[in-house]
Amino acid sequence: MRHRRALALLACALAAGALAGCARSVFPPGGPLDTVPPKIIGMTPADSTVNVARDAGVELIFSEAMDHATVRDGIRVYPPPGRPRIDWSGRRVRVTWDQPLAESTTYVLVVSGQARDDRGVPMGRPITVRFSTGGSLDSGRISGVLRTRTLVKRGVPILAFDESLGPRPDSTDALPSYATETDTAGAYELTALPVEHGFRILAFFDINTNGAIDPGTDLIAYYPDPVRLTRARARADSINIVATDPRAPAVLNGRIASRDSTSKYRVEAQDTEDSSLVIRVERTGPGPFTVRVSAGTYRLRVASLPPPDSPEEPVWITREEPIVAKPEEEYGPFEFAFGTVEETPSPPEGGE
């Protein structure tokens, strides 16, 4: 049951991934490659329609032939009105449900930006259709930007859970009240939300692209505070989510200063809690270096290595202050100088 709920929860999102193809120097038979994203050119009911019949469905018309599976998996309605049925006729798709829509209720239909045409080109940004079986639409709106460094920001599911589920909703067991996904710039917008209501907003990264939340593999980034909509404050903007990949390395930057352009140098970052964990890089001659380490606390040192057959020992310079490294962060530059700089002697007192 938990697995089924998890699959239902994430059905609003398609796995984010790059579309790859073989490069060609000429157009293939049949004309140039299709790179134009498909669009929705018509919809019934139109966006923001009110007094929709409870037995009505939603019809969408695409600008070109679509991959039916990606459209089917990319269409979701909030709040869920029942089991959906999807019927195709050329470029038209009609969505109906196994039971009537609720009275005086605002619905939000989202078509994922990952829905693709039959040549594999995605729409690129989600499309939202709002309609109501009552005389007005709910006016609540939450918008923001997903900010990342190494993680993807396009097509990431943004989920809104009821505030009553607590600051960290059990997303493997509870269903979101509403959902959308980010566009190519990481921006998102949840619209037609009920007011006098509180939400917890989170971003879900399906790392293994299986459509379900796997706590040991996937990543969830939370907006830290509940977002409460009221009649006086029906719009909440700049609800920005910052996502950091805890498995991404930290970067230690430094520079070796020396007059000897032929010497070899070894840079070591040693974990202060586990001395057997040492990350090493080497270079010939002075210049910059970069060491990538996992999150932790490290002591950085550099050795000037003697020639291979020399009985001499390496000369080490150690940075005494440890470095507390966090994922995706950069530290430095740290300077390590070998040898002394010759100084011009001062003239004797009274001399010229």
Layout of helices and strands:
Layout: H1 2-9, E1 40-44, E2 58-62, H2 68-74, E3 75-78, E4 84-89, E5 92-97, E6 106-111, E7 127-132, E8 140-148, E9 157-162, E10 178-181, E11 187-193, E12 197-205, E13 219-222, E14 227-229, E15 235-236, E16 241-243, E17 250-257, E18 264-271, E19 278-284, E20 287-293, E21 296-305, E22 315-318, E23 323-325, E24 330-337
Parallel strand pairs: 8-15, 8-16, 17-24
Antiparallel strand pairs: 1-2, 2-5, 3-6, 4-5, 6-7, 8-11, 9-10, 9-12, 12-13, 12-14, 17-20, 18-19, 18-21, 21-22, 21-23
Distance, first to last CA: 93 Å
Query: What is the C-level CATH assignment of the largest domain?
Result: Mainly Beta
**Can you tell me the CATH topology of the largest domain?**
Immunoglobulin-like
Oligomer: single chain
Secondary-structure element string: HEEHEEEEEEEEEEEEEEEEEEEEEE
Number of separate helices? 2
**Overall mean pLDDT:** 87
CATH architecture of the largest domain: Sandwich
Q: How does this model look, in words?
A:
- The chain is mainly beta and 352 residues long.
- It folds into two domains: 2-14 and 34-243, Immunoglobulin-like, CATH 2.60.40; 250-337, Immunoglobulin-like, CATH 2.60.40.
- It has helices at 2-9, 68-74; strands at 40-44, 58-62, 75-78, 84-89, 92-97, 106-111, 127-132, 140-148, 157-162, 178-181, 187-193, 197-205, 219-222, 227-229, 235-236, 241-243, 250-257, 264-271, 278-284, 287-293, 296-305, 315-318, 323-325, 330-337.
- The strands form six sheets. Strands 9, 10, 12, 13 and 14 form a five-stranded antiparallel beta sheet that branches. Strands 18, 19, 21, 22 and 23 form a five-stranded antiparallel beta sheet that branches. A four-stranded antiparallel beta sheet has the order 1-2-5-4, with no helix packed on it.
- A hairpin with a 6-residue loop joins strand 18 and strand 19.
- The radius of gyration is 29 Å and the shape is elongated.
